[in-house]
Specification:
Order of helices and strands: HHHHHHHH
Helix content: over 70%
Distance between the termini: 35 Å
Number of domains: 1
Strand content: under 5%
Structural class: mainly alpha
CATH class: Mainly Alpha
Radius of gyration: 16 Å
Shape: globular
Largest sheet: none
Number of strands: 0
């Protein structure tokens, strides 16, 4: 249960900061605040739950062989619940904010979500789960700044979720139209799965090959 609580808390703060900074907030500096939030939450909870805070990351870590099957569904449920609670908190904190749902180009948004979710999961697997990098102190920084890079580079194209729990949160907030949520779900989970496949190909010695 402590693992699920940590996943809930970390995801909640990530989505909370997204909402508070994007909606009448930090403007161009929002990606830095969002990535920094992920970084500190990964450092805070990584030693307990692994600090996924993202169903696509949980999928990648499970496919890589570092997350028990019994934890996959509860992790994802805790993450999505954290995203929903954060969205409700944002709505409470900014009740009169003017929010308009984005309407991204489907093909471009899908590609960007896949690519940067792949990048995020690829970095997680290599910095936080690899035997070669065990015990390093930079994994949280690397993970957080991958989100910063993705948000700056692709945020204007897709919304820059790279995380199904974030996609649920921004849909509840009204930042993204609910019918478009499939773009994030498909792109994010495909990116996570692809990262696990590439990790296994690049590290065959960890699998006895």
């Amino acid at each position: 249960m402590k693992n699920y609580l940590v996943e809930f808390i970390g995801t909640m703060f990530l989505v909370l900061v997204i909402g508070l900074t994007v909606i009448d907030g930090a403007g161009a500096l929002a990606p830095l605040a969002i990535g920094s939030t992920l970084m500190v939450m990964v450092y805070a909870g990584g030693h307990i739950s692994g600090g996924h805070y993202n169903p696509a990351v949980t999928l990648a870590v499970w496919l890589r062989g570092k997350c028990p099957t019994k934890d996959v569904a509860p992790y994802m449920a805790a993450q999505v619940l954290g995203g929903i609670v954060a969205a409700l908190l944002v709505s409470f904190c900014k009740p009169n904010a003017q929010v308009s749902a984005s309407s991204p180009d489907v093909a471009r948004a899908l590609l960007v979500e896949l690519l940067f979710t792949f990048a995020l999961c690829y970095v997680v697997l290599n910095t936080a789960t690899s035997k070669k990098n065990a015990g390093n102190s930079y994994y949280g920084l690397a993970i957080g700044f991958t989100v910063v890079v993705g948000a700056f580079a692709g945020g204007a194209i897709s919304g820059g979720a790279y995380n199904p729990a974030v996609a649920v949160g921004i849909s509840v907030m009204g930042l993204s139209a609910l019918p478009n949520i499939w773009i994030f779900l498909v792109g994010n989970f495909a990116g996570g799965a692809l990262a696990a496949v590439v990790y296994k190909m690049a590290n065959p010695e960890e699998y006895g090959k």
